[in-house]
Amino acid sequence: MTWRTTLGIVLLIAAIISGWSAWRLHKSNEATVAVEEQPFDYILHDFEMISLDKQGRENITLHGSELQRRRDDQTFAIVSPLFLIPDDQGRYWQLRADTGWVSPKGEELRLHGNVSGDSPESPDIIPTTFRSVTLTVQPEQELAFTSDQVTVSQPGIMQTGIGFEAQLKTREYRLLSHVQVRYEPSARR
Predict the structure, then answer these.
(1) Are residues 82 and 20 in the same domain?
(2) What end-to-end distance do the CA atoms of the chain give, in Å?
(3) Is residue 103 part of a domain?
(4) CB within 8 A of 163, min separation 6: which ones?
(5) The domain containing residue 25 runs over which residues?
(6) Mapped to the 3 state alphabet, what secondary structure does 27-51 carry?
(7) Does the pLDDT value for residue 62 go beyond 60?
(8) Residue 189 within any structural domain of the chain
């Protein structure tokens, strides 16, 4: 073997190694870019989450078909959320919507599309439902509100109005404007 053949083999091996290294580095950079472009830290499917208050008691339970946690602002986007909000006796208000949004620390919930709220089923509570397009809930203040049209129904009475505020703990609510009430007494027996 001459020195030219040896040099040629060494250069060929060096070219193969450098090409292989460049190819691996390129693939590694593509993978890093793909991960960094993802807007979500994680995605959950068919999930249940339970949030506790500062005393360690159940504050809110959330069920949904999908939850996405955004990397940039740490908020949560939810598909088909069902929020269960307990009262003092452990009974649950149910809040449903097409989509939901939760702030990073859970101090605000926003529901959008076909929002429905239903009171707990209990003999000592008048069954109450409300329907709207949007609803904002602030669990720590035990407050729910919207500026959209709302329909509130109880046995024998249906109320509609624009704007709605509800104190979840006291179960008091008020419609803010354009209020209409329809009274439907039960049939006498």
Answers:
(1) no
(2) 115
(3) yes
(4) 145, 146, 147, 148, 150, 175, 176, 177
(5) 1-37
(6) HHHHHHHHHHHCCEEEEEEEEEEEE
(7) yes
(8) no
